[in-house]
Amino acid sequence: MRLQGKVAIVTGGASGFGAGIARKFVAEGAQVLVADLNLDAALDVAASLGPAARALRVDVGVAADVRTMVAAAVGHFGRLDIVVNNAGVGHRPQPLETLAEDEFDRIAAVNMKAIYFTAREVVPYFKAQAPGAHGIRGVILNMASTAGVSPRPRLAWYNASKGWVIAATRAMAVELASAGVRVVALNPVAGETPMLATFMGEDTPEMRAKFLSTIPIGRFSTPEDLGNAACFLCSDEASMITGVAMEVDGGRCI
Questions:
Q1: Does residue 21 contact residue 87 with C-beta atoms inside 8 Å?
Q2: How far apart are CA 160 and CA 144, in angstroms?
Q3: 191-202 burial string, b = 16+ CB within 10 Å, else e?
Q4: Whole-angstrom Cα distance, residue 28 to residue 38?
Q5: DSSP state for residue 1 in the 8-state scheme
Q6: Adjacent-strand bridge partners of 34
Q7: For the segment 93-138, what is each residue's pLDDT rounded down to a tens digit?
Q8: What one-character DSSP code corresponds to residue 89?
Q9: CB-side neighbour CA atoms (13 Å) of 16
Q10: What is the sign, positive or negative, of the torsion defined by CA atoms of 173, 146, 61, 73?
Q11: What are the beta bridge partners of residue 254?
Q12: % of the chain at pLDDT higher than 70
């Protein structure tokens, strides 16, 4: 029960890594707002987690939706301690000069601007909140990627967006540390999520083997892997950790 008494928002919480994080957080005692563009899937995840979870349709690339999301979490659960900016989008492998502008804009909105929108809403709330263990008032966890550390060819603009997430995490962490707000990130390798086929271009045994050959441990990241790592980083056990982008990648970036 490492998150007993904590309230968390998990964006993109209806599938993949987000659902794994939501499940782990509830199992460890947290109450969770499962925020996702797909309301039906979010409702299914929340229902499977029982009364500790609530679902909300949110487009994290829209400022008004993010404002409503934060207000809904505080209004329903009475407080807010953790925000996991997990929602993300990718693009199919292609030469960097061929990506359509509307696809680039969506990547920028969901992978980058959403973190800005969330920070505008939760940072003032955290700063005003009474400190908890070790003086910590709140935790923001951003989902980055090994793509931001060791980019794969033909995924240039997705790679760049995740490099931005890592830099933003470090900048936020150093600025907010004195206010008692920790900011951390996770760098998963390609995982068993709905985005896997997008990254590979096609989901075939041959393409999976090609991707797996670059991961020393020999498997993809799972939602459980990310849930376990997120639970630690967001718990009081990690109260001295801020500004890190922890790789959960089976050795991919070594």
A1: no
A2: 10
A3: bbbebbebbbee
A4: 25
A5: -
A6: 10, 55
A7: 999 999 999 999 999 999 999 999 999 999 999 999 999 999 999 9
A8: -
A9: 23
A10: negative
A11: none
A12: 97
3-state secondary structure of 224: helix
CA–CA gap between residue 91 and residue 155 (Å, rounded): 7
H-type alpha helices, 11-62: 16-27, 39-49
**The pLDDT of residue 85:** 98
**45-101 pLDDT, tens per residue?**
999 999 999 999 999 999 999 999 999 999 999 999 999 999 999 999 999 999 999
Average pLDDT, whole number, for the chain? 95
Residue range 212-238, pLDDT digits in tens: 999 999 999 999 999 999 999 999 999
Q: Looking at residue 220, what DSSP letter applies?
A: -
**226 is written with which tokens?**
């990310």
Find the helix packing angle between 39-49 and 16-27, rounded to 10°. Answer: 20
Query: What pLDDT score does 191 carry?
Result: 79
pLDDT reported for residue 199:
66
Name the strands in the sheet holding 7-11, side by side, starting at the edge strand that comes first in the sequence: 53-57, 31-36, 7-11, 82-85, 138-143, 181-188, 245-248
Residue 235 CA to residue 232 CA, distance in Å, equals 5
Tokens 């996702």 appear where?
A: 36
Residue 53 and residue 34 in contact, taking contact as beta carbons nearer than 8 Å: yes
Query: What residues are annotated to the active site?
Result: 158
For the beta carbon of residue 92, count every other beta carbon within 10 angstroms: 15
* Residue 61 tokens, joined: 């690339």
Contact 220, 195 (CB under 8 A): no
Closest by CA to 28, choosing from 252, 250, 228, is: 228
Q: Each residue of 191-211: pLDDT tens digit?
A: 777 667 676 767 788 888 888
